[in-house]
Prior knowledge:
Number of domains: 1
Distance between the termini: 45 Å
Strand order of the largest sheet: 2-3-4-1-5-8-7-6
Strand content: 35-45%
Helix content: 25-40%
CATH topology: 2,3-Dihydroxybiphenyl 1,2-Dioxygenase, domain 1
Largest sheet: 8 strands, mixed
Radius of gyration: 16 Å
Structural class: alpha+beta
Order of helices and strands: HEHEEEEHEEEH
Amino acid sequence: xxxxxxxxxxxxxxxxxxxxxxxxxDESVRFYSKMFGATPTVRKPDYAKWMVDDxxxxxxxSSRGARPxxxxxxxxxxxxxxxxxxxxxxxxxxARLVEEDAAHCCYATSDKxxxxxxxxxxxxxxxxxxxxxxxxxxxxxxxxxAAAGCCTPGDTEDAKVRVQAKRGCCA
Length: 171
């Protein structure tokens, strides 16, 4: 298999992720449902998500008090192996990669990595492990990371400097 074919097959599993903060969730759900030609796959009082196949995107919106606009971008992967493979690429892109294991965010538990692009946009790469009944829940205490809740890469000084997601979905 050529390296180009392998790269194409590798990209088949990834799904582009966009999370937008909105002022009026119901109005936005109506708009995006018409635009995507589908209703949300997840709908909560403060959150909605579409898993669209054409284009292959995980598009989420929330009304949790963040400034309206793009909250963060990212890639959803479908396996631990794929997540580990992305880690090297992310490390090459940003020396201060922030890792979260079993993070509780957006009604799901996920393993994830965060980096920040040169413009200050937070990029999340994650593998969803399961769903949770609330938007954000503190995970069980772990020595490996600070309990930070949803959409924040932890409470370390490095995280505060590099990933500005605190202005985002869970601030």
